[in-house]
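tool=predict chain=A
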Amino acid sequence: MSEIDLRPVAYSYIRMSSKRQIKGDSLRRQLELSKQYAERHGLRLDEETTFADKGVSAWTGANLTEGRFGQFLDAAKQGKIKAGSYLLVESLDRISRQQVRTALVPFMELINSDIVIVTLADNQVYSKATVDANFTQLIISLTVMARAHEESETKSKRLRAVAENRRTNAANGIGRFHPMTNGWIEAVKVGHEKWEFKLNSHAAAVQRIFELADSGIGQVTIAQRLNREGVPTFRGKGQWFQANVGRIIRDEVCIGTYQPTHVIEGERRPFGEPIKNYYPAVVSEELFWRVQRGLRISFGRGRHKGNRITNLFSGQITCQHCGSSLRLRTGGKKHYLYCDNFSRTGTCEKSSGLYRYDVLEEAIFKHLTILDPDFERGGTDDKSRDQILKAIELTEQNAKKAARQYDNLMAFIEMADDDEDRKNIMARLKPVRQEREQANARIRELNEELATLDTHRKEMTSAAERMEQERLKWTSDDPDVVYESRARVARLLKRFISAMSINFEEKTVMVGIAGGLRGYMFDRKGNIINQYDLVPEIDKQGRPVLFAERDENGKPDFENAREIISRGPSIDPFINISGFDHFEDVVERRKIADVLVNDRAK
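tool=predict ok
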């Protein structure tokens, strides 16, 4: 029969905030101190349940809210840890580095839960008995807590001051203090903590990535293309992967921007506003932000077969009956579109048929001169100029709004009490800054377009003409040429085709352009059999329209419809542009709205 160990149980709490401590001797040292203390004082050290927080901050209180120390405290308060047990820590600053009034709370909660706290560095023992018998011990603990917080606060201020001075100098063009670079940039030391940067041979790979991405080619295919072309990675070995390509495409170092950071409690965090022109740019800002916009609307995201993008309308075309995406099915040399929802679940009963993809593709190209708004207006007329001016005005408003948001967030950073607050604000700051930069880049593009309108009149400017030229390349024997060309065409189509949907019962396709202001219906042979045009309604304000709920058959219930007044451009608010109602519904609604207008005029 084994003897019962009646010795008090001791638990070790270890916290290491920095990577240097984690990689170093800190863990072994703290564990050894706990073992030695337990042996000297007749305690049974529970080594199986050692509480350790690695890389967790005590200054922000993360070890209490997210870490193992918080778990120990909760267990003690709930009585899951036996009263009279010991908690062995190297010093009180392992428990907390927060303000004294905050740090004192968990300390006293442990004491009140009858846990004995031992600080191994100075052999101090804190318990109900010792604190009640000698209140000066509590004063000493408060002093230790205050010193711990002051040390972290001083360190933070010192690091912020150094970083701010470096950042200010770099922003003013005085020196480059950060030697860490990406694979396509070389750093040359020119003085104490001063560096100069230059592009190396890998810059060509980055430029190739952006060239392909700008053509609408996805990241997986870009990686495959680089591997096939034998483009060396930055390390000179291994292969390219989607993750590598994605990181490069999103990295603002490509346009020479550097985001300063500082380290607090072992965590690297953004500090201050990014510095432009810090590194040599490998691509232009216009190209970089254009690719970012392409990522957001997923150019070239569709499936492809082999080296040829099969479905140019992937991500745009849906089932008119259930709204599900459409997929491609191959039958011999022909491709057919079908409802993915019907294929997987069988719940879309009306979409049991197929629609010839090659017929649809040929129909779109056959009617490009109608579908492409630029071509219809001759590419660049006075209306184009007005639209560009309006686009510039709207984009400038967005840029100013983003700039105000950015300035406000920067002001909040200055007022933040601790780095945890700054971290949260910085997380909100990045997307706002990117929105501002994209808007500014778009303004430059629009101004360039406006400045070259006369030249565009003499050149091939409409998307329709460009796509016709691209289609000539599809007979090439080079699969890469065909792939890149079809990717560019898919991207061009997404510029003006807003949505597409197929009615499998009637074998018709609805195509909306210009944000749904115009719609065209194609039959199974690819002929246009109906259309609508809401462009003339744009300048009419407050037009009465009819709002009708749908009945159990999915049809608008016009008998119980009610009149409403549209606000802003008077486009029927009940027309479902994204899903495309049956075309007859749109026409019927427009007729009824026209009747309402005439009645009101009378």
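DSSP finds 21 helices and 20 strands in the chain. The longest strand covers residues 9-16.
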